[in-house]
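Regression test case RT-17, inverse folding.

Input:
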């Protein structure tokens, strides 16, 4: 039986909710909850879950009627000029703690169910379709006026289909109906998706980056295909979640495009990721400063060492005040000819069971060139981002409290 958390205070019930029929419903649900599911057979559990879902859907239909009535009264009180204030939306946000978009969607759905979507409302009340089905039907019916289709027939078709399909299948079914009847309308809807596509990439206060957005079907499917190809088959020792692997794949995709060298120039040179780090930072010396990416996010010396494994290095001499005294000639840490030979030799990531292709991997020095290692083939191995990160245990020397030179890995690749 469910019980309130310690310290919870139940809100006072309105007088009407302490009498039938509200009190009867509350008492009945409490009785079912008190009996619990432990003594029921599996078939009885399935039957009860089916009943629960049907009642939840019926309650969704009732809630929509109540919300539509409240919305109608507030519109009448405010007058046409103030209807966009959407008092119901604000009340849902304040009292029920919904987001503004979720509250607005509920009000729009309530208006539609109380208005033109009578077949949909009746089917929801009987528990035949879910609130997600209703959302698909509502959005489809909002698009019908832009087509040559007859609204009543479209709603009837979608309600019947919703009883046999999940919401995703119903959405696909609606698009097929629209395209078969009116190709021009479908093409305009597709173009509208492209116009409404957006993507936000912003740096947070914690030196991470947050991605938000919505892509049209073509762009989204293209990105999805590219990320799946980069992710490849999961290695045996890879404990990352699919979302973590997808985030890493975006980084690989961006680096691959930068490495291609065919992007438009910025500031007189091809775009690239800039890492600014002192020799002390790269050597992980105690008291050294963090490195910096593109004059923005700060990263540890361990990350700087990993990035510097395959990079163009420009030595810069500065005085005690940070004034630049000399800029040396840029050079590759791994020459192009050596990289080609490395790709041919290793053919894929050298992590256990990993088949990531060589062009998506990074070379790993053992020992690191900062610690006196060279850039010759015998000391290089290819690793994907995940396994490359595992080959950089330099910070372990600080956890051990030793002050010796940076540790180098002697494990077999």
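Golden output:
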């Amino acid at each position: 039986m469910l019980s309130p958390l310690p310290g919870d205070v139940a809100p006072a019930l309105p007088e009407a909710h302490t009498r039938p029929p509200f009190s009867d419903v509350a008492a009945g649900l409490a009785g079912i909850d008190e009996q619990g599911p432990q003594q029921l057979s599996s078939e009885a559990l399935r039957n009860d879950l089916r009943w629960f879902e049907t009642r939840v859907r019926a309650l969704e239909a009732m809630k929509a009627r109540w919300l539509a009535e409240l919305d109608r009264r507030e519109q009448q009180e405010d007058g046409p000029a103030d209807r966009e204030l959407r008092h119901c939306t604000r009340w849902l946000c304040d009292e029920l703690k919904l987001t503004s978009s979720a509250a607005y969607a509920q009000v729009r759905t309530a208006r539609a169910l109380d208005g033109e979507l009578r077949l949909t409302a009746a089917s929801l009340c009987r528990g035949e379709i879910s609130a997600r089905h209703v959302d698909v039907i509502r959005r489809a019916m909002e698009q019908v006026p832009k087509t040559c289709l007859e609204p009543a027939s479209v709603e009837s078709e979608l309600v019947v289909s919703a009883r046999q399909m999940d919401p995703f299948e119903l959405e696909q079914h609606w698009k097929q109906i629209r395209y078969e009847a009116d190709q021009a309308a479908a093409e305009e809807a597709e173009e509208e998706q492209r116009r409404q596509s957006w993507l936000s990439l912003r740096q947070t206060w914690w030196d991470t980056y947050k991605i938000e957005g919505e892509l049209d079907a073509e762009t989204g499917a293209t990105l999805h295909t590219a990320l799946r190809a980069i992710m490849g088959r999961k290695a045996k020792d890879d404990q990352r979640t699919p979302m973590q692997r997808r985030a890493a794949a975006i980084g690989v995709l961006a680096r691959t495009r930068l490495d291609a060298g065919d992007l438009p120039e910025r500031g007189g040179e091809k775009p690239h990721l800039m890492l600014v780090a002192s020799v002390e930072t790269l050597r992980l010396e105690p008291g050294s400063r963090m490195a910096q990416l593109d004059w923005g996010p700060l990263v540890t010396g361990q990350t700087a060492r990993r990035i510097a494994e395959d990079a163009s290095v420009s030595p810069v001499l500065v005085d005690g005040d940070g004034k630049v005294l000399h800029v040396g000639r840029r050079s590759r840490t791994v020459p192009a000819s050596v990289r080609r030979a490395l790709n041919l030799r290793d053919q894929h990531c050298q992590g256990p069971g990993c088949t990531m292709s060589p062009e998506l991997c990074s070379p790993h020095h053992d020992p690191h060139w900062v610690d006196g290692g060279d850039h010759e083939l015998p000391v290089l191995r290819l690793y994907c981002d995940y396994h490359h990160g595992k080959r950089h245990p330099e910070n372990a020397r600080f956890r051990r409290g030793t002050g010796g030179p940076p540790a180098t890995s002697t494990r077999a690749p």
